[in-house]
Structures are given as C-alpha cells and as structure tokens.
Amino acid sequence: MNLNKKVFVSRPIVPDAIDKLKSFFQVEVWNETTPPPKSVLIEKSVECDAFMIEANDPIDFDVINAAKKLKIVSTRAVGYDNIDLSSATEKGILIGNTPGILHESCADFAMGLILTLGRRISYSHHNVLKGNWKVFDQTPYLGTDVHGKTLGLLGVGMIGSAVAKRASGFNMKIIYHSRSRKIDLENQLGLIWKSSLDEMLQESDYVSIHVPLNDDTKKIIGKRELDLMRSDSFLINTSRGGTIDQLALTNALKTHQISGAALDVTDPEPIAHDDPLVSMENVIITPHISSASAATLRNMGIMAADNIIHFFTEGKMLACLNPELMS
Q: Within a domain: residue 1?
C-alpha cells in the first residue's frame, strides 16, 4: 500500500519500524547516529507529511513554523520537552509519543543504579581494572546497604511505581512526593505519601527522580533541596537532566553535602568530558540508556511508526499529546 505520503525518519536505529513505514509510505531516513541539523528538519518539514523522531530532535517553533505539509510528528519517547507542543497544536500538527512501554526497563535500570551506587560496584570494578586488587581487603570498598533503607520517590507515574515494586523486594521503606496522592499504590505496596518535598528529602537514604521536565519541574532539585538531604544519602536521576541544578549538585558532591549521585541524564547531553562530575569517584554517569533494552527500543520504534500509520489509514493514533486536534 502506498498512500502517497512522505515520512522523514530522523535515525536508522529501529529497522523493523522503518520497514513497516515503507510498506505504507515513501520513507526518507537520516542515516546517521547523530541528530539531523536543524536546517535539515526545517527543510523536511516543508517536504514531508510526517516525522518519526528521537527524544533529542528539536521540533521547535522554527521547524513547526516552516511546515507546509507536515501533519504528524511521532517521537520514539514518552517525554516531549524537545517539542514545542503549543506551536504544533496551533499549527494543527499532531504529536504522538510512546507511553506504556519503557517503564519496566527504566525501573530495572534505576534499581541497578541504586545498587551500584550504594554498594560501590562500579568503583570496585574500576579499581580491579586499574590493577589495585593486590590483597583481600574490603575496607576501601565499604558501601551502604539497600535493604531496609528509605527510598524517596519524586514522582510515582508508571516508572516510579515500577521502581517502588522492585524496592519493596529489598524491604525498603518507600516514601514519595507527587502532585496527587496515590492511595492504590499505598495500599498495594505500603508507600507513604509526603505532602512536602522537603520532608521526603530529609528522610530519604536514596532519592530517585521520576518526573517529566516542564516549567514546574525544571531544577526542582537545586541547592536548597540538596542542603536538605542527609550527608549519607544518594541522588538518582533517570528522568531528564534539567530536573537538577547540575552546578548545585557538583558543589554538593564536592563538599560532601550528599554521599553520591547516579545520573542517566545530564544537562546538557552529552555531558562534557572535562565536566567535574565525570571524574568524581562518588558519581556514576551513563549515556541516557535507562530504556535501552533491545526489546524496549524496538517496541517503542514500532509504536512510533504505528502512530503515523494509524493516523493516515484510520484517522486515529495509539497515543496523542494534543488529541483535541483529532476532533
């Protein structure tokens, strides 16, 4: 089937999704692992009917304003802080995303970071690689237990609640702060709601961030919040780098205001190699890969493609961020 529509795919990383699109449309792929320049996005917004993009492709006002034929942008992501949703809606361009797929993989990874950070697994491994294991002596590698400790969750959406399920298996006390109280999760997993973020930060051994990046959550963890955390506590972020004031975090780690941090996201991305955080022994940084299991990557790609296919063939989408345009 060829619906005489042209789709621009901004990365070649999910071949199955691209093949599926090709069975319906004319497809052009940016065959680089790096994002296409903004000038290319502007050019393609004039030529193409649909975009399938990645989380770091800037679909901003300039790209949207230049659009002539563009009807739908489908991102292989849940978050959409790279998209000017307001401008897209005003222009009549539908925005699709891929919720309901990555939360289990992200929760696995977040729990892995908690364990790696607390028990100093990465630090110990690197010391073995450096040839520093000369004798049986555990004292340089003493870490912090995870079982029985208090985990503070900032946000308990699909990812945060999946982390809570895993943490309950470690017999952790789980407290949380969110815009609204989650009674069902409290009853199911024994979560304890903290109406005050300050209170949650003060009580937690581990703080894990699971909120989207928006005006309300930008730098939600700054100097004041870090000062509230205990000196033996840890901060974990698998959401978006912009939720943390990175300079304040750097200073808190240098002055031992907190014990360590594990960051799967930074601001900016990628983080500069000479950034002080990179060389700190009490910091773990991974390259935004919490959702990067093979199955999850593929499934998100297929869903992003299906958003486009369903729209042009059935007039509906699996997930739409501005559904008012559908009516």
A: no
Q: Say yes or no: 136 and 94 in one domain.
A: no
Residue pLDDT, tens place only, 8-54: 999 999 999 999 999 999 999 999 999 999 999 999 999 999 999 99
In the structure encoding, which two tokens stand for residue 156, read together? 């308990």
> What domain count does the chain have?
2
* Claim to verify: residue 233 and residue 269 sit in the same structural domain: yes
* Alpha carbon distance 206, 233 (integer Å): 6
Q: Which residue has the tokens 């925005």?
A: 95
Query: CB-based contacts of 125: which residues, under 8 Å, 6+ apart?
Result: none
Chain segment 186-228, per-residue pLDDT in tens: 999 999 999 999 999 999 999 999 999 999 999 999 999 999 9
Structural domain including 127 reads: 103-285
> Could you tell me the two tokens for 64?
């949207």
The set of catalytic residues is: 240, 269, 288
- Whether pLDDT at 1 is above 70: no
158 and 278 share a domain?
yes
The CATH number for 239's domain is 3.40.50.720
Among residues 200, 150, 205, 156, which one has the least CA distance to residue 173? Answer: 150
